Amino acid sequence: MLFTDGVYEVEDEREELYTQAMLVRDVQKRMQLPVAQLFDELLKEVRDFSAAGFTDDVCLVGMEYRGGKVR
């Protein structure tokens, strides 16, 4: 998973930041989910935390590994 700082530098109503550590925690809680669902839930989590929504660019990039041999 790759992401821009716009995902985690979001403030709540007390002007406290949603930090990179919080992002990692919230991703770890959802590691079993397919990437699309993980991203949807993660963005909802950050939006719910935020007072003003996203104010910077937001980009998430991920891939799923489904097992099997890598050649």
Task: Describe it.
The chain is of the alpha+beta class. The chain has helices spanning 20-28, 35-49; strands spanning 2-3, 10-11, 17-18, 60-61. The protein contains 2 helices and 4 strands, in the order E-E-E-H-H-E. The model has no long low-confidence stretch (mean pLDDT 90). A hairpin with a 5-residue loop joins strand 2 (10-11) and strand 3. It has one domain.
Count every helix, treating DSSP H or I runs of 4 or more residues as helices.
2
Strand content: 5-15%
Question: N- to C-terminal separation?
Answer: 21 Å
**SSE arrangement, N to C:** EEEHHE
What is the CA-based Rg, rounded?
14 Å
Low-confidence stretches: none
Largest sheet: 2 strands, antiparallel
Number of strands: 4
Strand order in space, largest sheet: 1-4
Helix content: 25-40%
Shape: elongated
Average pLDDT taken over every residue: 90
Please, how many domains? Answer: 1
Structural class: alpha+beta
Task: Set down the secondary structure blueprint.
Layout: E1 2-3, E2 10-11, E3 17-18, H1 20-28, H2 35-49, E4 60-61
Antiparallel strand pairs: 1-4, 2-3
Describe this structure in a few short sentences.
This protein is α+β, with helices and mostly antiparallel strands and 71 residues long. Helices cover 34% and strands 11% of the residues.
Characteristic terms for this protein:
single chain; 71 residues; alpha+beta; two-stranded antiparallel sheet; two-stranded antiparallel ribbon; 2 helices
